[in-house]
Design brief:
This protein has helices spanning 11-22, 41-51, 88-93, 96-99, 143-151, and strands at 3-8, 30-34, 68-71, 77-81, 105-109, 122-128, 134-140. It has five helices and seven strands; from the N terminus they run βαβαββααβββα. By secondary structure, it is of the alpha/beta class. It has a single domain, classed as P-loop containing nucleotide triphosphate hydrolases (Rossmann fold). α1 (11-22) packs across α2 (41-51). The longest helix is centred in the N-terminal third of the chain and has 12 residues, at 11-22. A hairpin with a 5-residue loop joins β3 (68-71) and β4 (77-81). It is 27% helix and 25% strand.
Length: 156
């Protein structure tokens, strides 16, 4: 299966969805988060982090201005935000190659900004349905992504 769609009625369901998905993730998985400002990318990130046992003293925030946050979960999460970057070279200048193979999950907001220049396993598209509800489409981009979706079962 290459695609799963669901409707989340509120932030709690979005977090629960992400937490459930986190159970199928492994080190070096790369997830793209795609959606307009305020769509719920950070809410999804928070759920993913909770599912991977982020210590309570840490909070998940959008790295829009810091460009990257690191969360010390059971599998660390390197959370990037490409919104303010002008080109792929700016992303490379963050030292992305230095972070590869450190046993972390990569979570990249606005991952589609540079097309397919950033390899990903899954793209998570989040769209407003109403003020509170969101349509979440999880698309497998790689064979690893297909494997994740085939293993993952979630019902809202």
């Amino acid at each position: 299966m290459n695609l799963k769609k669901l409707i989340s009625l509120d932030e709690t369901q979005t977090e629960d969805c992400a937490s459930s998905l986190s159970e199928k993730l492994k080190s070096d998985d790369v997830l793209g988060l795609i959606g307009e400002i305020g769509a719920g990318k950070t809410v999804f990130s928070r759920g993913l982090s909770k599912g991977l046992a982020l210590p309570k003293e840490y909070s998940v925030t959008s790295p829009t201005f810091t460009l990257m946050n690191i969360y010390p979960c059971t599998i660390p999460i390197f959370h990037f935000d490409l919104y303010r970057l002008e080109n792929i070279e700016d992303f490379s200048s963050l030292g992305i190659d230095d972070y590869k193979y450190q046993g972390a999950i990569f979570l990249i907001e606005w991952a589609n900004k540079f097309g397919d220049q950033i390899s990903r396993d899954l793209d998570i598209h989040i769209f407003h349905k109403s003020e509170d509800s969101r349509e979440i489409t999880i698309e497998a981009i790689s064979q690893r992504g297909i494997d994740i979706l085939n293993e993952w079962e979630y019902d809202v």
